[in-house]
Amino acid sequence: MIKVVGVRFRSAGKIYYFDPQKFDIKKGEHVIVETARGVEYGTVVLGIKEIVDDDITAPLKPVIRIATPKDDKQEAANREKEKSAMAVCLEKIKKHKLDMKLIDAEYTFDNNKVLFYFTADGRVDFRELVKDLAAVFKTRIELRQIGVRDETKIVGGIGICGRPLCCHTFLDEFAPVSIKMAKEQNLSLNPTKISGVCGRLMCCLKNEEETYEELNRRLPNVGDRVTTDDGMKGEVHSVNVLRQLVKVLVDDGEEKEIREYKVEQLKFRRRGRRDKEERGDKKQSAEDKALKELENLEKKEGKSKLDED
Q1: What is the mean pLDDT of residues 175-201?
Q2: How far apart, in whole angstroms, are the C-alpha atoms of residue 100 and residue 243?
Q3: How far apart are CA 214 and CA 253, in angstroms?
């Protein structure tokens, strides 16, 4: 076992472990640490704790010191300098007529490097831009192309639920999401209904996926033949996944009637869930094409590039 503290360098960013050394570090404090990018100022989000050696990426870098008031002032000054750096970079992008969208600027704590995050549809030749920026800032310059998910994580916003975006407030990593998750949860397969502000599949599709998989496993499919506990036979008309209720079209010999049963009251042969696509129509074919494009964009997006060293 080894003692560590968990540190973040941006809101809802990835958590990195550091050696607390002799310091009594508490959650919420700011610390100065050594990273692959140089000396950085971070916020402690996990206090001192012990974890197994296998969970550590060696070598474990040390905490240099707990941030002093002077360090806090320097960090605040860096944030102000980032605003002017954004303005300068935007001007230079316009001058070089580059097809790129500047998202954010970031100074390392020791001012050893300035990072500019941008999005673009394809590859951008920014070599001349880097030379111009280096001449202005007199330090190392890095331009990093990020995806639309990372852009949204930085900028923030309000989701269709009316709450601040998950990725901007608490998600430290993007979990893989897929169209299958929307199908499993019986959501509308209209791409505009299951896409987030970033134009990609909503991250929250992952939140309840395991619960829906477990609940769906207990239910029959729509159209399945079932036998009820009162001896009636019928066809499944609809299901309520969360309440575990099943509406069955039963035939008592004289007329057909829809009755509602708890899943425990039914006997049926359990089998895998069928894709809703099997019951698609012409109207859905246009959605299928849009869904395919959305899924391809999801694969193309790849991993977040915000926390790359």
Answers
A1: 89
A2: 49
A3: 35
DSSP alpha helix (H) spans, 105-257: 127-137, 148-155, 166-169, 179-184, 191-194, 209-218
Q: Note the pTM of the prediction, 2 decimals.
A: 0.78
Rounded percentage of the chain residues whose pLDDT exceeds 70? 91
Nearest CA among 128, 134, 129 for reference residue 114 = 134
Q: Average pLDDT, stretch 136-144?
A: 94
- Name the least confident of 91-95, 99-103, 301-305: 301-305
User: 280 pLDDT band (50/70/90 cuts)?
Assistant: very low
| Alpha helices for the chain (secondary structure H) | 69-96, 127-137, 148-155, 166-169, 179-184, 191-194, 209-218, 282-301
Count of other CB atoms within 10 angstroms of residue 254: 6
Q: Taking a C-beta distance cutoff of 8 angstroms, is the pair 121, 99 a contact?
A: yes
For helices 127-137 and 69-96, angle between their N-to-C axes, nearest 10 degrees: 140
Per-residue confidence (pLDDT) for residue 285, from 0 to 100: 61
Helix (H) or strand (E) holding 40: strand 38-51
Q: What letters, b where the CB count within 10 A reaches 16 and e where it falls short, cover 172-203?
A: bebeebebebbbbbebebebeebbbbbebbbb
CA distance 279 to 275: 8
